[in-house]
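Deviation from plan, reported transparently: fe (ii) ion complex.
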Amino acid sequence: MRYEVTPDLITGYDMIDREHRQLFDAVNQLLDSFSDSKKTGKDQMDRAATFLTNYVDKHFGHEEDVQKKYEWREYETHHKFHEEYKRQLKEILNRIPSEGPSIQNMSEINVHVVRLITHIRTMDKRLGAFLQTKE
Ligand SMILES: [Fe+2]
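Because the crystal trials were delayed, the predicted structure below was used instead.
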């Protein structure tokens, strides 16, 4: 399966929506590297996992910068979610053995991506609506 930014996930703030698309691309690339892992091996999985964790860090940072700039009232809870999400993502990815993910690993990743989708649908969309009144 492929993850994508469906219309109900659009926040209306370009930078955020653009980065969400790239973020889902990075997730899809990681999942591809898993299904190809017999052919491409561990390096490709490691590269995709590192790219995803770095991209998530960068994107959350951008979202937080703009929240601080406009003093968004949900900043504290939003920031807490981001911190916890990054921590759990690293934990989940670190548990994946070099021979490739187990069913359990795959299920943890998918549950974690769904948590992000719920976050986008709620906190990020409220943020997007707020930012549109500012710029
Ligand atoms: Fe967010």
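The pocket of fe (ii) ion is lined by residues 63, 78, 82, 119, 123-124 (CB under 6 Å). We consider this an acceptable substitute for the interim report.
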